[in-house]
Amino acid sequence: MTEDSRVLDARYYMPAFGRTMKVVRGAGSRVWDDQGREYIDCVAGIAVCSTGHCHPAVVEAICDQARRLIHCSNLYYVPNQAELAEKLVGITGLSKAFFSNSGAEANEGAIKLARVRTGREKFVAFVHGFHGRTCGSLAVTHKPAIREPFEPLSPACTFVDYGDLDALAEVVDKDTAGVFVEPIQGEAGVLIPPDDFFRGIRDICDDAGALMIVDEVQTGMGRTGKWLAIQHTGVAPDIVTLAKGLASGFPIGALVAREGLEFGKSEHGSTFAGGPLACAAALATIGVIEEVLPDVPAKGERFMKGLSSHNPRGRGLMIGISVGDRCPEVQRICAENGVLVNCAADGNLRLIPPLVITDEEIDTAVGVINAALD
Ligand SMILES: *Cc1c(COP(=O)(O)O)cnc(C)c1O
């Protein structure tokens, strides 16, 4: 990073992030910093660059749409919007979609939809769960350090231990609008509950008339080897939210809901959401994922096998390793040796590479990560 950018950032940008490196270019599963150093990217913009960096089909779709229409607002039918909604309904097996500009906003929409359709106000979510940083999505996000400075928040939310169905059954009642759950907790560091957890949540929600809202912002769009991680469990949610991997880095989020759950006229909206460029990028992204999705489980297994001496856990290309206090040091050593990895919460090393990562890149990354961990 040039001294100039560092100085400008320190002087003019709010210091909400801790960072040292400047990434200036990407292609496939590689990125380059401003010193010309090359890295295999096992962070992928935090599970965003699902098709790799600057995939030609995505670049082409964005450029092509940009030449015709960049924005027109939701006052009119928007090019690519209904086509993308149809795709997402097909992928999720649900009924109708609504777009947003981010994961947090998708969850905001889910909160509003649950409240307006159930007529109830309260939510239940899980310890270590993450659903975003806007006021509503933060209210259902557990981490006290990021939530408590902003209290009181709305909606009211009760947190129970992830995986604890008895505790869940005790707090979900006739006033509960919805239960927010990640199929695998991502920001927490790739925590995977037993599959029957989700059947249990479904039953508890059905008994109380509460909605089961599955946050697939990080786990969705092929990350775990299926379009949605909840599809590994056979459980059908009421609402699914998506964002990160949906458009290869172009900002977009979505909520998709079952039959009978929809916003009526004027109940929700957004100036930018579901715009022509975002939907073009998402459609192109889905086209690429359709091709690579069958290979994701084997790629994930190759990673897991390579890292097996360090007890990795994961599903598809979403892998976590408990490292503890050494995690930041491991992250630094990996970067020095040309592999980007990321420390999620509680010393959990997280690997969320592009779905297009090659076997050779996996083997190289595994070698560097193993050496850093040893
Ligand atoms: C990242 C994330 C969000 C928030 O998405 P933003 O686009 O950062 O608002 C919500 N839920 C989960 C599970 C996430 O991983």
SSE topology sketch:
Elements: H1 3-12, E1 23-27, E2 30-33, E3 38-41, H2 44-47, H3 56-68, H4 81-92, E4 96-100, H5 103-118, E5 122-126, H6 135-139, H7 144-147, E6 157-160, H8 165-171, E7 176-181, H9 196-208, E8 211-215, E9 239-242, E10 253-257, H10 276-292, H11 296-306, E11 313-315, E12 318-322, H12 327-336, E13 339-340, E14 342-343, E15 348-351, H13 359-373
Parallel strand pairs: 3-13, 5-6, 5-7, 7-8, 8-9
Antiparallel strand pairs: 1-2, 2-3, 4-10, 9-10, 11-12, 12-15, 14-15
Residues 102-104, 107, 130-132, 182, 186-187, 215, 217-218, 243-244 line the site of pyridoxal-5'-phosphate (PLP).
What is the helix/strand order?
A: HEEEHHHEHEHHEHEHEEEHHEEHEEEH
Mean pLDDT: 97
What share of residues is helical? 25-40%
Ligand set: pyridoxal-5'-phosphate
- Could you give the count of β-strands? 15
- Give the overall silhouette: globular
Strand order of the largest sheet: 4-10-9-8-7-5-6
Instruction: Note the gap between the termini.
Output: 29 Å
Strand content: 15-25%
In angstroms, what is the radius of gyration?
20 Å
Helix count equals 13
Pfam families: Aminotran_3
InterPro entries: AcOrn/SuccOrn_fam, Aminotrans_3, Aminotrans_3_PPA_site, Class-III_PLP-dep_AT, PyrdxlP-dep_Trfase, PyrdxlP-dep_Trfase_major, PyrdxlP-dep_Trfase_small
Protein name: Acetylornithine/N-succinyldiaminopimelateaminotransferase
Cofactor: pyridoxal 5'-phosphate
Explain what you see:
Belongs to the class-III pyridoxal-phosphate-dependent aminotransferase family. Keywords: Amino-acid biosynthesis, Aminotransferase, Pyridoxal phosphate, Transferase. It is built from 13 helices and 15 strands. With 374 residues, the protein is α/β, with parallel strands linked by helices. The protein has helices at 3-12, 44-47, 56-68, 81-92, 103-118, 135-139, 144-147, 165-171, 196-208, 276-292, 296-306, 327-336, 359-373, and strands at residues 23-27, 30-33, 38-41, 96-100, 122-126, 157-160, 176-181, 211-215, 239-242, 253-257, 313-315, 318-322, 339-340, 342-343, 348-351. The strands form three sheets. The chain has a seven-stranded mixed β-sheet, sandwiched between helices. Strands 1-2-3-13 form a four-stranded mixed β-sheet. Strands 11-12-15-14 form a four-stranded antiparallel β-sheet, with helices on one face. Helix content is 37%, strand content 17%. α4 (81-92) runs parallel beside α10 (276-292). It folds into two domains: 3-52 and 294-373, Aspartate Aminotransferase, domain 1 (Alpha-Beta Complex); 57-291, Aspartate Aminotransferase, domain 2. The protein starts with a helix and ends with a helix. The model has no long low-confidence stretch (mean pLDDT 97). It binds pyridoxal-5'-phosphate.
